[in-house]
Protein: D-serine deaminase-like pyridoxal phosphate-dependent protein
Amino acid sequence: MSYLDQISSPTLLIDEKITRANLQRMADKAKRHGKKLVPHWKTAQSREIGRWAQEYGISEVTASSIKLAEYLCGQGWKNIHIAFPFNIREISRLNRLAESQNLSVQIVNTSTAQALANQLAQAVGFFIEIDAGYGRTGVPISDFETIDEILKIAKTSPNLHFKGFYLHPGHTYYGVDKSKIHEESREALHLLKSKYRQSYPELVTRIGDTPGCAVMEEFGDVDELGPGNFVFFDLMQVELGSCAKEDVSVCLAVPVVDISLERKEILVHGGGVHLAKDVLVNDDGSKNFGEVVLLNENGWIIPSHRSFLKSISQEHGVIKASNELLANVKVGDLLGILPVHSCMTADCMGEYLSLDGKIIDHAEGCH
Amino acid sequence: MSYLDQISSPTLLIDEKITRANLQRMADKAKRHGKKLVPHWKTAQSREIGRWAQEYGISEVTASSIKLAEYLCGQGWKNIHIAFPFNIREISRLNRLAESQNLSVQIVNTSTAQALANQLAQAVGFFIEIDAGYGRTGVPISDFETIDEILKIAKTSPNLHFKGFYLHPGHTYYGVDKSKIHEESREALHLLKSKYRQSYPELVTRIGDTPGCAVMEEFGDVDELGPGNFVFFDLMQVELGSCAKEDVSVCLAVPVVDISLERKEILVHGGGVHLAKDVLVNDDGSKNFGEVVLLNENGWIIPSHRSFLKSISQEHGVIKASNELLANVKVGDLLGILPVHSCMTADCMGEYLSLDGKIIDHAEGCH
Structure:
């Protein structure tokens, strides 16, 4: 029996072979450059896929929230880093979790450092997150006063251990000069390392973004790479040049519920609650919420004539279909949709179906 | 103890009083016009909130998927209508559910009607969905041939019972002339009723969109109103003129994790996985992913100086803050965010916290 026979409703498919190839390629690259790969698990959010990663020598992961860190606890990770500016309302949750799991958190201001210094009951590492131009979060690269103050506060605590500097150059997602951004980021981290390694000889620097880590070949003296999305990739990464469409390892299987030959549209059950609402813009200015692939017993193939989701609402998806697709599709068929943003799609769906018909876990499906 | 003391992480709050007032107002309006209110439960997706609705004489609901219909089954609903073009891969699920629950489905083409006629093992009602200009789904209003063919197929089945015509004029969301759209929609349904009531004297017509049902006072001979979003409302509905900000009955409580006085920004834990990524555009062209309200022990108040989410990523939210908010906020505080699209936010969060500290269920939280 094919996995396709199990599907009656929108279902997120995962191709294990492509996923493992993505993991292996990034693990090899990190090794080649002498860097430690600590993937951001906000994308996969899965224990099972974590076991696949461990087979490629990956021994630490990053979580996007304490909730995800709790979910990943007890899975053999040497360390789970929570890469979100620490939320001091969660200190007691952190203390509980740190009883059984080696953890680190991220600090971006002195008041959070002080609250942790006062209230930590367990040993926890921390990175200082640096902003070198992205502008979302982090201590500005030139604000040594805040960095020094955080380090000074940490020294007053027996439980708060400085690990190093973390930088997420998320502006590589916005189409500007990726290699320039990466150079600036590396230099920022190099500067910090030079300045602080005398006092903290063990300190490491970590840089984490898929567009950079996938494409760049120069990492300078950065110690650790922390990309996330590369595990699955998606259409946004294809557009950014991080990967080929063939590297995208998840796709949403959607049932066809209506076809309009006149409008060249196919209505599917697959909308914002399945894919999330991330969107790309086609060359002609129209919107693209995902692209059609053709499902078969072995997975999916990318058709030579492009069809894409031109609009989605809560449950509905409307495909702008090629003539070739229209000629071959009927109500009740399944189509595959490559997602624009796989992290968000996986979070919406809360589980995966493998191509051999097994359910693969995701944190959101396990309440 | 205040409900606020229970909150350490992003939490969707519900104000029961406002929600009940929204339910009562729409129930009163339907009654005043002699129409039956059958709310679309894709917004609330809750059994508990369903019990509140039943107190206002609401006895039938609409679901957006068979999954939601399954969740709402056994809650005393006289009928659950699944208002999505029926997906024939789910016929056996439908047959199982129909053993214990009075159901109706939606049909938009003959092949689906034929599959149902062939395979239904239980009595199920159906509406024919009509497209009178929205262009997303439904039989085009002038396509009597398809309507006749569907009705002819249904007659061959002892289990497939025609209930009437359903119309969702979703183009009222796109800022054009709402009252003109409603007039055209009413006329379309009137025309169909006139044409088919001789053969089907019991047939009803239903129209369902919150912008129309909230504002219009003229419903002609439409029999049933099916809005959904009005139960909670949201900023999109405020913008459309369906309600005031004070009528929005859910808000996301988010912890403050960093403050930049220089940029006048507040970083909160609250991103796309909590709010979804629906967005409004401010007058100056900037984006608005939600607006700040101030939480207190009794719920929230709308501040006189506006602050809003200018950007969100998976877990991060960046608030463009008023001077008044900046002067009063500190790291570790909670702020409230009125959502742009409450249906999507509720679906992301999977449960609600009431202002007296009780968890209220949502279908997505109950796997």
